[in-house]
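Let's practice the habit of predicting before peeking. Look at the sequence and jot down your guess about where helices and strands might fall. Then scroll down.
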Amino acid sequence: MKTFDIITEADARLLERGASVLLARGGHITPLARDTLRERRITVTEEGRAAAGDLSLAPRADVRSIAIGSGHSGIALRRALVMFLRGRGLAVQEAGPDGSDQADNSVDYFDATVEVAHSVARGEADAGIVVDGTGIGPAIAANKIPGVRASMATTETIARQSREQAGANVLALGAALVSVDEAKAIVMAWLATPMRDPVHIRRLAKVHELERSKTGQGPRSKS
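Done guessing? Here is the structure:
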């Protein structure tokens, strides 16, 4: 991760959108650079406030690719969101039944959720969306995949907080709880919200350590 003593407007424009950088202790960001960093969704953390390695745990601020899946109860909403997101220029991977046989339940939300969650965990997609009747089951299932932090949201406020405060990289939606228009607004609020606060990032690092201990990987080196 790149470290700066001072970040100027020129520096900010050369950084990749959605990147994370470290500002050295006592460093400075020029006023024009702050506006550019905000517009380009670049995360800047001050040295000493959060470990550089922890910044990589924050969800990507500039989402370009999304994996989205559903069971039968979420097909209509899934398709509407796929068209909506592709219309905004995002690359979308789709998982789940096609709805040709509503009586066929051989592929349910669990299977589609696992496929989406693995895509996010492996870095094949920047973020994921899973849909069923309530969004509760997919959220639980997705959170069993190491590296995934899934949150169910029924409002834009919950969506923003799940991203900003908990670093959610998978969003779970309930087709029986929100309309298509509400779902679109929730998704856009979620995608537009970065995780920048070092306090929340440090908490995310604790979640990561707990996950590693549960998978038998042991604690991460402090060096």
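How did you do? Confidence is low (pLDDT under 50) at residues 218-223.
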